[in-house]
Amino acid sequence: MHRLFAALLALAGLLAPSVQAGPWARAPGEVFLSYSHNLATTADALAAGDMRMEAFSSLYGEVGLGRRLTLGLDLGRGTYTDEALIFLRRTLTRPDATWQVALDFGLGQRRVAGLDDSRLARAGLSVGRGFGAEALDWIPGGMAGGWIGLEAVAIRDLTRDTQRWKVEATLGLRRSDRLSVMLQLMAEDWPGNDISYGINPSVVFRIREGTSLELGARTSFEENPRFGLELGLWHQF
Question: How high is the pLDDT of residue 110?
C-alpha cells in the first residue's frame, strides 16, 4: 500500500492535481485529480508556543466511465496512518436535472502504525445543485455562478467491526472565471471519540486552463481544537 500511495502521489505532483467531488457524473473519459497537503496543530500546542505541526496529504481522483458512472480513488497519508479507498459512483438523476443525486460504494484498506491492516467498506450519498449568475445577483458586486453540495459517507472497518461517518456541506461561489471562494462545514464521528465539527474556508485560483490552486484554513472543534492550513492543486483533463 505504501508503494502504491507513493507512486500515485508522485503522479499527482507531475500532473498538478485537480478537482472536486460531488454528485455530478463525469463525461466518459474525463479525468479529475486533486492533491492537498495540510499542516495542523492543537490549540494547546499553540498556547504553549509549540509551532510543530502534523502533516496530512491526500490524493483524490475521478474518471468518467459513461452511463452516469464515475470511478473514484481516495488516498490519504498522515503521520501514523495510510488509507486507500476505491469506489464506484452512480448518478441517479439526468444531466439536466436541477438537483443532482448520486450513490457510491467502495472498498479499501487502512494502516495504522503498530496495528494490523484493516479492510474497509464505503457507502456514500451526495446531493448538489449549481447556480447561475442571475440567482446570485443579491450578492454585492455579483457572482459569475456557484454551487452547493452535501455529501454523507459511512466507512465500515471490516477487520475491527467499527464504523465512522462524515457529513460535509460545501458552498462555492465563482467570482470570475479565474477566482472562486468556498466554505465547507463538516461533522465527523470516529469510534471512541466525540463528534468533531469543522469549518474550512478557502480561495481557489485558476492558474491555467484546467489547473487551479486552492489556499485554505482548517479549523476543527473537538475536545482540543485544531487549527491548520491547506494547499491544494486541482487538474481536470
Answer: 96
- Could you give the C-alpha distances from 68 to 88, 90, 107, in angstroms and in order? 10, 6, 20
Q: Which of 177, 201, 200, 211 is nearest to 19 (CA)?
A: 211
Whole-number Å distance between alpha carbons of 127 and 97: 12
Burial of 212 (0-12, 13-18, 19+ CB in 10 A): buried
- pLDDT score, position 98: 92
From residue 123, alpha-carbon distances to 87, 105, 127, 154 in Å are: 9, 5, 14, 5
Pairing of strands 145-157, 118-132: antiparallel
pLDDT the model gives residue 6: 42
Residue 222 in grid coordinates: 473537538
- State the pTM of this model: 0.85
**Chain mean position to CA 168:** 9
Distance of CA 2 to the CA centre of its chain: 21
Decide if 102 contacts 95 (C-beta within 8 A).
no
- Give Dmax (Cα) for the chain: 55
| Residue 201 predicted with pLDDT over 80 | yes
169, containing H or E segment: strand 162-174
Q: Which of 78-92, 127-141, 175-189 has the lowest mean pLDDT?
A: 127-141
**Pairing, β 31-42 against β 226-236:** antiparallel
66-80 b/e with 16+ CB inside 10 Å = b?
eebbbbbbbbbbbee
Average pLDDT over every residue of 94-114:
95
